[in-house]
Amino acid sequence: MLSKNKIRQIQSLSKKKERDESSLFVAEGNKMVSDLLPLFHCHTLVATEEFLSQHHRCGAEEVVESSREEIRKASLLCSPQSAIAIFCQKKVNLDVNALSDGLSLMLDTVQDPGNLGTIIRIADWFGVKDILCSPETVDVYNPKVVQSTMGAIGRVRVHYVDLCRLLDGMNSAVPVYGTFLDGDNIYGKELSKNGIIVMGNEGNGISSEVERRITERLFIPSFQTGDSCSESLNVAVATAIACSEFRRRMI
Fold first, then answer.
1. Domain-by-domain residue ranges, the chain?
2. Tens of pLDDT along 135-157?
3. Into which CATH architecture does domain 96-248 fall?
4. What tens digit of pLDDT does each residue of 179-219 get?
5. Distance between CA atoms of 83 and 64, rounded to whole angstroms?
6. Domain 4-88 class?
7. How far apart are CA 99 and CA 25, in angstroms?
């Protein structure tokens, strides 16, 4: 049976302060919980008898068998399923030197949880292992971010750092790419196999402080032939296009 205290604990993790103090986060849904069980240490698993029968060796510290109705009371989702899990946050170390060898993403104050979750999923798809976030970027363990990653949160390392300080300390030979309206067409530009791709805030783009440290300015052109088109691309969509073009050059 799911106690009132456990329901309060689950719901309290919707708040960043509670997540930071406890180093815990919540994930919901049959597939989401199943995907994350091998990737994170599970503090508490709340699930129906049917779900638990399929996950005998879940490794959770605490297992609570509950009804769908009890799960609904605790859930942070509009359409809860058969499982809610409280996981321990991972401690990830940033190897700055390793950034020189591969492709990384840098997010300058991305604030929409759905965008961050989708970008993490995109990074996972294109084999980008590290995402460097400004402190103002939405928390990676925000429940909406977690759900949007569709499990990719367990395979991509997300770091919160001072972006300018990090860039100032990087090897000058590492290219730093950013997308701008006055940049070079990404489809005709020579692109490196390594480097950092910077994506900016949903409304304001890349900050002036970070912009000064960008060495390669890129532009994703519109192919609209009419008189007008959308003013800009969603940041997650732009990230997907950029990652796809970088990886295409490796084929």
1. 4-88, 96-248
2. 999 999 999 999 999 999 999 99
3. 3-Layer(aba) Sandwich (3.40)
4. 998 999 999 999 999 999 999 999 999 999 999 999 999 99
5. 10
6. alpha beta
7. 27
